[in-house]
């Protein structure tokens, strides 16, 4: 698939990046190359191939799914500029 200059300009606008007019041809070429590579990848037969979490086989450790408070209240509040009664204290902003 070939990307033209106007499509590259539109992609840059949507991505909120500033691209100078003289750089649009290069950007269009790079985007076309990316799309060509994606087309090549779509030709690969991946039927029956298991997804990987790593290139080496491993079992991820599992833990019980329990809701806790983290048991670190004192450590967390130690970073606060003002803490009272186990909570962050902030200035009143609503009258």
TrEMBL record:
Residue ranges of the TM segments: none
Signal peptide coordinates: none
An annotated Gene Ontology molecular function: glutaminyl-tRNA synthase (glutamine-hydrolyzing) activity
EC number(s) recorded for this UniProt protein: 6.3.5.-
InterPro entries assigned to the protein according to its UniProt record, in alphabetical order: Asp/Glu-ADT_sf_sub_c, GatC
The protein's role, per its UniProt record: Allows the formation of correctly charged Asn-tRNA(Asn) or Gln-tRNA(Gln) through the transamidation of misacylated Asp-tRNA(Asn) or Glu-tRNA(Gln) in organisms which lack either or both of asparaginyl-tRNA or glutaminyl-tRNA synthetases. The reaction takes place in the presence of glutamine and ATP through an activated phospho-Asp-tRNA(Asn) or phospho-Glu-tRNA(Gln).
Protein name as annotated: Aspartyl/glutamyl-tRNA(Asn/Gln) amidotransferase subunit C
Lineage: Bacteria, Pseudomonadati, Pseudomonadota, Alphaproteobacteria, Rhodobacterales
Gene: gatC
């Amino acid at each position: 698939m070939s990307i033209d200059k106007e499509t590259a300009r539109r992609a840059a606008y949507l991505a909120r990046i500033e691209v100078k007019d003289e750089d649009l041809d290069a950007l269009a070429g790079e985007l076309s190359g990316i799309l060509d590579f994606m087309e090549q990848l779509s030709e690969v037969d991946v039927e029956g191939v298991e997804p990987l979490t790593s290139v080496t086989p491993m079992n991820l450790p599992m833990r019980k799914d329990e809701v806790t408070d983290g048991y670190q209240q004192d450590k967390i509040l130690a970073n606060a500029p003002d803490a009272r009664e186990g909570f962050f204290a902030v200035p009143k902003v609503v009258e």
